[in-house]
Design a protein that fits this description.
The complex is a heterodimer of chains A (256) and B (287). Chain A has 256 residues and is an alpha+beta fold. Chain A is built from five helices and twelve strands. Chain A is elongated and about 65 Å long. Chain B contains six helices and nine strands. Classes of the chains: A alpha+beta (256), B alpha+beta (287).
């Protein structure tokens, strides 16, 4: 994502952040308002449209029958993809997925996978032969910063309302077995200031980014540092602390 | 199938003496061998063996960035391509970039961006190529560590060397530098790259399950390991350039020290296999 930000604006966003306020009036430790609309796309087995401030993401889950991986013959499969479609931002272009989209999909995937959100064992139909495959597809609709968290909230919300289409086998559809609810929090470092849930302006001038996924026990399930700058250990710890502080409220919202 | 799953779960990664499957203690690294300046055509290169990993890194540049529209008029681009040879893993990997290597290339490029003085080379590109010839977990750390030496070998102005290592959790115990079996059946893995001198974290990824206390302990361990790897990197560079310096000197002037290029001490005492021989019979007996 290329940034063209004037020095004036860069300076303004930094000075605001340094003074404890932000360009959108939030405190550095405040997440933008989240709205969750589940079952937005009814042809999907599960879906959710999540707005994080003005960032708008639609995540759809398709559940289809397929073959298991040879090394996990009795487990279902989770597969996560992301499309940064040009409709969502002047910075996005059509064509094959760029590294940004791949990183986004993989970071969202990691949070869900490592927290064992889906009980994949319960998605086995015939060991070695047939299992349910969950395709989680992230579709960015409006990009105003922090796609990582918006997409990961969308994915979790969509999974919570996903139905396994067992009626295709003459059985009853059943809800996807969900056993853990990891919440991702992304922080941006602008010079020496740390803000969570960066908006687009903040993201464009950020030096470094850290995404932390934590579970209900307050344990860490996944992390990803991004961008060209660096973090000190103290900063990483502070971000983990901030993530734990806000994640419960968000978790409740996504479960509901 | 149940049985296989059972076996996998039961596979003991740490024995009753607190040792790992290759006899290491939790804080021990696998043996590491580094060599700088191994390729002719590249501007800088390094070869690294780290346990079962064999990694080559090459650096080209600073050279004109292509395609032109990618050029940054204020600084150089740092572009890394991490690539695994199809035969580097047990199951053949399809050649070319997959999603995993695209992500790793991205995070490594970003890690080097803040150490290289990119502003000295507007419109240019510093291209880093990492080839994994043989993989045994921890390839991104090995690749990054090798690339850092290749950058130094290419004479790219940098703030410092970057060193990298992973810490993880196996059988509930926080351990450094997981090998393949430990990574596959372990509980967590966290690769870290730092500038050891300043403590700046340039790469940080984590997957699995760590409590805050484990994260804290793991970080302290990996920071220490990164410091040790940094010393090995410097030693490998010294070894490469000590020779050239000598050749330039007038022979009579400076008597070379008796054994200037003796093999550097292995930085981590790696338990020789024999050390565990006496116990082995007992252990087999118990099983």
């Amino acid at each position: 994502m290329t940034e063209i930000v004037s020095e004036l604006q860069r300076d303004r966003v930094y000075r605001l952040a340094a003074s404890g306020t932000r360009s959108d009036g939030r405190t550095p430790e405040e997440v933008r308002p989240i709205t969750v609309e589940k079952n937005f796309a009814t042809n999907a087995e599960g879906s959710a449209r999540v707005k994080l401030g003005n960032t708008d993401v639609l995540v759809g889950v398709k559940v289809e029958m397929g073959e298991p991986y040879p090394d996990t013959p009795d487990s279902g499969v989770l597969s996560t993809g992301a499309e940064l479609v040009p409709l969502a931002s002047p910075e996005f272009e059509s064509g094959p997925p760029r590294p940004e989209a791949i990183e986004l999909a993989r970071v969202v995937d990691r949070g869900i996978r490592e927290a064992h959100t889906i009980d994949l064992k319960k998605l086995c139909i015939t060991p070695k032969e047939k299992v349910w495959i969950c395709f989680v597809d992230i579709h960015a609709l409006d990009y105003d910063g922090n796609l990582f968290d918006a997409a990961s909230y969308g994915a979790l919300a969509a999974l919570t309302c996903t139905k396994v289409p067992a009626s295709k086998l003459g059985l009853q559809d059943y809800p996807l077995p969900i056993q853990n609810y990891p919440v991702s929090i992304t922080a941006a470092k602008i010079k020496d200031v740390i803000v969570i849930d960066p908006n687009l302006q903040e993201e464009q001038i950020a030096d470094a980014r850290l995404t932390v996924a934590t579970d209900e026990n307050g344990d860490i399930r996944a992390m990803q540092k991004g961008l060209k700058g660096s973090f000190s250990y103290e900063e990483v710890n502070r971000i983990i602390g901030l993530a734990l502080k806000v994640s419960d409220v968000i978790r409740a919202k996504l479960k509901a | 199938m149940e049985d296989i799953e059972h076996l996998e779960k039961k596979m003991k990664l740490i024995d009753e003496n607190g040792l790992r499957i290759d006899g290491r203690k939790p804080i021990q690294l696998r043996p590491i061998k580094m060599e700088v300046g191994v390729l002719k055509k590249a501007d800088g290169s390094a070869y690294l063996e780290w346990g079962g990993n064999k990694v080559l890194a090459a650096v080209y540049g600073p050279r004109e960035a292509h395609p032109r529209h990618m050029q940054d008029p204020t600084r150089a681009l740092v572009q890394c391509r991490y690539n695994m040879a199809p035969f580097s893993v047990t199951e053949r990997k399809r050649p070319g970039p997959d999603r995993r290597s695209v992500e790793i290339s991205k995070v490594i490029s970003e890690a080097f961006n803040s150490v290289i003085f990119t502003e000295q080379f507007p419109r240019a590109s510093v291209d880093i190529f990492i080839e994994i010839l043989q993989a045994d977990a921890g390839t991104r750390c090995a690749g990054l560590t090798a690339a850092s030496m290749a950058l130094a070998d290419a004479g790219i102005p940098m703030r410092d060397l970057v060193a990298s290592c992973a810490v993880g959790k196996i059988d509930g115990i926080v351990c450094l530098d997981l090998r393949k079996e430990e990574d596959n059946y372990g509980d967590a893995d966290m690769p870290v790259a730092m500038i050891p001198r300043t403590g700046e974290i340039l790469l940080l990824q984590m997957d699995g399950h760590l409590t805050l206390e484990e994260f804290d302990r793991g970080f302290t361990m990996v920071k220490d390991a990164i410091g040790r790897i940094y010393e090995m990197q410097k030693e490998a560079l010294r070894k490469r350039y000590a020779v050239s310096a000598e050749e330039l000197e007038e022979p009579a002037e400076q008597a070379p020290p008796p054994e200037p290029r003796s093999e550097p001490e292995p930085p981590e005492p790696y338990p020789p296999e024999q050390q565990f021989q006496p116990d082995q019979d007992d252990m087999e007996g118990q099983q």
